[in-house]
Amino acid sequence: MDDGTNRLGWMLDDALRMPETRYAILLSADGLLMAHSERIGRDDAERQAAGMSGLQSLARSTAEFCGDAGTTWRQTVSEFDDGYVFLVAAGPGAYLAVSATQHVDMETVSFRLQELVQRLGKELTSPPRPGADTRA
């Protein structure tokens, strides 16, 4: 991917122009890395993509706790001592993850990620793999 196939990486770098953001990755529903920001290496990005896929799957499985098992998952925010991880739906079969420090303006990041997903549209979608569960 770092050999020129990380063609969407510049879009993720654009998302990191906000203060207190660290890394960004774009992943498919089955956990494959589609793109990564410049600040994170490919190996780390691939490992995080696999984890984020699992996180999204767990979040989606708790939809009925929100009132309706069929409701659409849109975003998960995880909080840690050193910051946050934002995971958002980026189109059919694609997810965008951004990490940030504990000092980040969470509302601004969330808004900016939604804006980025809308602006990029088709660029951020991944065609579903045969047999893959891509409900967002």
TrEMBL record:
SMART domains the record matches: Robl_LC7
Domain Roadblock/LAMTOR2: 9-100
InterPro entries: Mycobact_SerProt_Inhib_Rv3364c (IPR053141), Roadblock/LAMTOR2_dom (IPR004942)
SUPFAM superfamilies: Roadblock/LC7 domain
Signal sequence interval, chain numbering: none
Domain of life: Bacteria
Protein name: Roadblock/LC7 domain-containing protein
